[in-house]
Design goal:
CATH topology of the largest domain: Nitrilase/N-carbamoyl-D-aminoacid amidohydrolase
CATH architecture of the largest domain: 4-Layer Sandwich
Oligomer: single chain
Number of helices: 15
Length: 533
Amino acid sequence: MKLCAIQVPYGKNLEDTERSVEFLIKELNTCDESIDLILTPEYSNGPGELTPEEALPFYIAHTEKLVEAAVNAAKRCHATVALSGCFKIGEHYRNTTRVYHPDGTIAGDYYKQQLVLREPAEHGVENAHTREWCPPPIVESQGLRLGFLTCYDAYFEEYIAHIAYRRPDIVLVAAFQRGEPCENLRLMNQMLAYHAGAFVLRSSVAMGENSTKGGTSLAVDPAGKLLADFGQNTGKMIIEIADPHWKYCRTNSYGGSMISNCDFIEQGRTPWNYRACGSCVKPDEYQMGYPRVCAHRGFSTVAPENSLPAFGAAIAMGADEIEFDVRFTADGVPVSIHDPSLDRVSNGTGLVEEKTFAELEQLDFGVKCAPQFAGLKILKLEDILKRFPRQAILNIHIKSIGKEPYPKDKFRKILDLLREYDCERHCYIMATGEILQTAREMAPHICRCQSADDGAWEIVDNAIRNQCQKVQLYKPYYNQEMIDKAHAYGILCNMFFSDEPEEARKMLEMGIDTLLTNDYFQIAQVRDAFVKK
């Protein structure tokens, strides 16, 4: 079987990019019947340096002619053709690798999963599909299972592991990597082939004869052996392989029987030790859209507040955020409880801060809510992070201990747990000024939300002064002027709280970004209807 990767010269300006597209069309038009699989580089309908104003119009103007050449090549050569470019999908444009069967019909699409920041910002490329669960696509053509990585995708080893699980025969890598050293590109793709248990065919853009970066269209076998390296050449890199279904096998540990490399790796996985991933994981604080609904102390109308049943119910229903309170015990354990005293939510008395964690564990934190919850124990912050890592945004309300600066040792314990359970990008700190000051100093990368405890009517001014990204307004101390002022300073507005559908709808109309509620499901329906309008 013959594989072909076409490498085009990188366009350093608009005119050069025009010539690169014409070069690619010419190469497609001169492919012959000996070729079975053809791959083009990423952004084949604009393989060059384009300004934000030029990019999308250029892609649109050059797509039809390029698609025609790809379809003709598929039919003429009776080959599978994978054309990578910025294509219109529905009402939007996506970084797409489209596979054509030998008869010219579409076999399937792959949408780049990991986009660099400039693609949506400067190229007009949609990234909404990356925020939803989608297993790595496999497209079948001519009896081959084709997997895909597009440029930046190749850096994400956890995604590569999922591709390996899908058992592709060939992984097609459409690339536009202009700044990566050639030796790194070879290494990355050799390891990709070895770990994916598949052949790799890579197509890229040539950066010039003397360049030590970019270019490097290549082919690798499943054992990681480099079969072809096109360097900075332009044109067709053609390589013949004997059996595209071949899998590299090795001994199952020293002296063992032969086993495929993928199976050797798979049998030893311990995924509970990895980063939380898969369909349960939500987009992080900086990727998730608005408006949101935050389950206040969990779904607290159906289960005891600040409890695993309350948080689990909210997350199972799809909550964007959960809110919970954090206080410290006498022996320095961060626990989730709202009141400073134990009386309202447990069968104990006294102050939380005066009890050790062992003492609190002896109390019942469910029976006062309902008999069926009798026996619930107090939650540590770690319990929440361990059970629900990255499954919702965590609105962490750190309770104040006074007006003096918040102790760094206490904040360090919270920060260390967020890091340990990989939740730093899936949370924000909601607190008063003295806590926010400590947060700014120790963890400026974590989003901050101003609490109303420093003064309800002055809350927006306090949020500006404390350089917060959010403010948690508190009814009835809010009005349209406060919301507008916050937005003018780039500050998002939470609202504590609403359990009434009509009230919630009016708050959304005023521009509230996140609604806190005790009745998650009812208010989530209001939000969903509001978004659909």
